[in-house]
Write a structure and sequence with these properties.
By secondary structure, the protein is of the alpha+beta class. Helix content is 21%, strand content 30%. It is built from four helices and 14 strands. The strands form four sheets. Strands 1, 4, 7, 8, 12, 13 and 14 form a seven-stranded mixed beta sheet that branches. It has a three-stranded mixed beta sheet with strand order 2-10-11, with no helix packed on it. It has a two-stranded antiparallel sheet with strand order 3-9. Strand 5 and strand 6 form a beta hairpin. The radius of gyration is 18 Å and the shape is elongated. GO terms for molecular function: DNA-binding transcription factor activity, RNA polymerase II-specific; RNA polymerase II cis-regulatory region sequence-specific DNA binding. It is found in: Nucleus. It comes from Laticauda laticaudata.
Length: 200
């Protein structure tokens, strides 16, 4: 998984805001058949049957009771699918367009989550059979699932920790600066170091 250091930082706070996921999950693959075609998907599943609350005086998450009823499960199919194995070996697959919501009536294909619950993203790859590949039942397909424990998060509607909020804005700003002024990369690394974070 790419951006490992960034995920480790956020893992200590376990929080994600709704809408687009941050940090973005980006993965690289190895060992796939370069001649085959693959569909890449993501889903997000509950970690446990608990609901949480954030204790500001402790700066930590506490169990607040039983989980709310589960919401409809959705698979996010990467829009660039199907990939050839050769493409997957050469390029990174980014899930930057994944969007989250707590709206049970969502009609836009967003992944629906309960706020203040813990979740685990999962990445799946399906080997495409001939010209078709059913997405109705993963168990009927030749597929593999990848889970990264450091991506476990608590879904929130607002950042529950001031440091996370500030760092998120700072990271977004630095990403923009890095894309427009690559000559300042060294200065950015020094700035990130002040946050005990390494920009790779």
């Amino acid at each position: 998984m790419r951006d490992y250091s960034l995920y480790i930082f956020f893992f200590s706070f376990h929080s994600f805001c709704f809408r687009r996921m941050f940090p973005t999950i980006r993965v690289s693959f190895s060992g796939v058949d370069p001649e085959a075609k693959f569909i890449v998907l993501m889903d997000i599943v509950p970690v446990d049957n608990k609901r949480y609350r954030y204790a500001y005086h402790r700066s930590s998450w506490l169990v607040a009771g039983k989980a709310d009823p589960p919401l409809p499960a959705r698979l996010y199919v990467h829009p660039d699918s199907p990939f050839t194995g050769e493409q997957m070996l050469k390029q990174m697959v980014s899930f930057e367009k994944v969007k989250l919501t707590n709206n049970e009536l969502d009609q836009h294909g967003h992944i629906i989550l309960n706020s203040m619950h813990k979740y685990q993203p999962r990445v799946h790859i399906i080997k495409k059979k001939d010209h078709t590949a059913s997405l109705l039942n993963l168990k009927s397909e030749e597929f593999r699932t990848f889970i990264f424990p450091e991506t476990v998060f608590t879904a929130v509607t607002a950042y529950q920790n001031q440091l996370v909020s500030v760092f998120t804005q700072f990271t977004n700003y630095c990403s923009f600066v890095n894309s427009t002024q690559t000559t300042k990369k060294g200065r950015m690394i020094q700035t990130f170091s002040d946050f005990n974070y390494w920009y790779l």
